[in-house]
Amino acid sequence: MHTAGKDSSSSQPEYDLRSLVPLKSSALSLFRSHGRLSSCAAPDVVELSLHRTILSGFRAFCSSKGVCGRGPAGGDSTLGETKVLFCKGVGLGGGIELVVVVNLSLRKCVPCNRKDLSPITEGNASVLKPQVPEWELFNDGGVMKLRRKWKVKNFLLGLEFFKIVADLAESEGHHPDLHLVGWNNVVIEIWTHACGGLTENDFILAAKIDKLPFESYLRRKVND
Ligand SMILES: C[C@H](O)[C@H](O)[C@H]1CNC2=NC(N)=NC(=O)C2=N1
């Protein structure tokens, strides 16, 4: 666990992720006593925010650059399946947000008729989107959706593809919109009808679709 370093925000050291993740549990208790702990649809996505009662130890802990830990893309670091995506030091007396996200494809969709299911925030969407890089976010008449396209070898394999996606959707209790256009163009769109927008369920389903064994259905790319 980190001891509180000096509080200058100029040359904050990069923090080794390993000392960050163990802190999560003690941070939970500390943040719970000092701030709002809101867990999103799944317990493994925990967004902590510490209000004005910030402790210098945490201020020193999180660089003012809004980046903690080492990772391929700035603040994106991975330890096993746990990603610490960022902790945002918002300066003296401000709050700190520590977002720890477990790999989407390991999570489970929640029933869409839950009272606490709400559309995902832009911030959380930007945190989850990097885990489904092949998908695009698009606005369909005011409804935000995820979409991915594939070219399959033939019409029947397109239907085969739909079948394995359908089995996954049934097991998750969360369903995509399936399109097979011009005999070999598969388009899958995902959104949460119950709240007319995107929820974490949609990102979980997209991540799980990406793990399906559909390579053999696909037409080889021209430059292959
Ligand atoms: C109770 C059950 O969760 C709901 O009927 C589910 C079924 N599948 C669903 N799939 C999608 N994409 N959106 C929904 O709102 C939805 N609702």
TrEMBL record:
Its EC number is 4.2.1.96. GO terms for cellular component: mitochondrion. It catalyses: (4aS,6R)-4a-hydroxy-L-erythro-5,6,7,8-tetrahydrobiopterin = (6R)-L-erythro-6,7-dihydrobiopterin + H2O. It is an enzyme of class 4 (lyase). One of its GO terms (biological process) is tetrahydrobiopterin biosynthetic process. Gene3D superfamilies: Transcriptional coactivator/pterin dehydratase. SUPFAM superfamilies: PCD-like. Pfam families: Pterin_4a. The keyword Lyase applies. One of its GO terms (molecular function) is 4-alpha-hydroxytetrahydrobiopterin dehydratase activity. The keyword Oxidoreductase does not apply. It comes from the Eukaryota. Keywords: Lyase. Belongs to the pterin-4-alpha-carbinolamine dehydratase family. This is 4a-hydroxytetrahydrobiopterin dehydratase.
